[in-house]
Write a structure and sequence with these properties.
CATH class: Alpha Beta
Distance between the termini: 31 Å
Helix content: 25-40%
CATH superfamily: NADP-dependent oxidoreductase domain
Strand order of the largest sheet: 3-4-5-6-7-8-9-10
Strand content: 5-15%
Shape: globular
Mean pLDDT: 93
Number of helices: 11
């Protein structure tokens, strides 16, 4: 496993991280598999584990707290997030000072930890001034409850406002962002990567395999694989990606991966890591075998001719999309 700095800052994170957004925690057997997956991650050199207060109604945080307790605190980097409703009442969501402080305390209680390494604003809150949010996060760094803070899925304008507020108010730095980024969704290449590089912020990306599209298990003209995300995901995000154009691209990418003798998923992760601005890809894994496959992407250098072929297949053109 290779490690990269969090932007210009001193924290080192594994190039491949383990996320818990879709981790199945229903029942003892599922939790046992999830525990084995966490252990496999450690054994493979993964030191970065991502979570959020809203995942599984807080159970994802509680599970990680139990799963990580057998490891020394210095061995891992753990992140969580705040924004979505987790408490009753008008102040039970968002990025106000009140909600951030109360939810951070709840997160630390769930994890049974004194601090989290990274803390993200899960989405942008139009009802709260950016200055209030940035000041609160900076104060939580000063209080020792978080070490580095950042945002997830903020637009370039919103990010610019946040960086400006930090500078104006002389706050602890906004050190990291967590956007979606994969072969099928490259919007951060247009402005956000340069904005982060200018301000020294690291980038830890989520959905690097486009909801599973870039694993190669969804094939043109074939039925949906039994038990796959497309058969049960409530918001149908993966189903919206199963377009004829995307599936044609998958078929072409599979041939490139075959030529390099790697799974498409590994190729897709290594393709993201080709960007020096990216410090880690946050992967999901429902079993240890998936995790062990994903970590092969760390250190994999894709030959230039293959990168050129991939660019031809993807045929990317800058565009504007709704963020968040």
């Amino acid at each position: 496993m290779n490690y990269r700095n969090l932007g210009k800052w001193g924290l080192k994170v594994s190039e491949v991280a383990l996320g818990s957004w879709v981790t199945n925690l229903s029942g003892g057997d599922a939790q046992e598999v999830a525990q084995r997956t966490v252990n496999a991650a450690f054994d493979s050199g993964v030191n970065f584990f991502d979570c959020a207060d809203a995942y599984s109604g807080g159970e994802a945080e509680r599970f990680l707290g139990r799963a990580l307790k057998e490891h020394a605190r210095h061995e891992y980097v753990l992140s969580s997030k705040v924004f979505f409703p987790t408490m009753k009442g008008a102040n039970g969501w968002g990025l106000s000072r009140k909600h951030i402080i109360e939810q951070l305390d709840a997160t630390l209680k769930n994890l049974k930890l004194d601090y989290v390494d990274l803390y993200f604003c899960h989405r942008f809150d139009p009802t709260t001034p950016v200055e209030e949010t940035m000041q609160t996060l900076s104060d939580m760094v000063a209080a020792g409850k978080i070490l580095y803070y950042g945002v997830s899925e903020w637009s370039p304008v919103q990010l610019s406002e946040a960086f400006a507020a930090v500078e104006k108010l002389h706050l602890r730095p906004l050190s990291v962002i967590q956007p979606q980024y994969n072969m099928m969704d490259r919007y951060i290449e247009d402005e956000i990567m340069a904005l982060c590089a200018k301000n020294g912020a690291g980038i830890t990306v989520f959905s690097p395999l486009a909801q599973g599209l870039l694993t190669g298990k969804y094939r043109k003209g074939a039925p949906l694989p039994a038990g796959s995300r497309a058969t049960w995901q409530a918001d149908k995000q993966i189903n919206a990606l199963l377009t004829e154009d995307n599936l044609d691209k998958v078929e072409a990418l599979l041939k490139v991966a075959e030529g390099l003798n790697v799974p498409l998923s590994v190729l897709a992760l290594a393709w993201i890591l080709r960007k020096k601005e990216v410090c880690s890809v946050i992967t999901g894994a429902s079993k240890p075998e998936q995790l062990l496959s994903n970590v092969q992407a760390s250190g994999l250098c894709i030959p230039k001719d293959a990168l050129d072929e991939i660019e031809g297949i993807l045929n990317y053109h800058p565009f504007v999309r709704k963020i968040g």
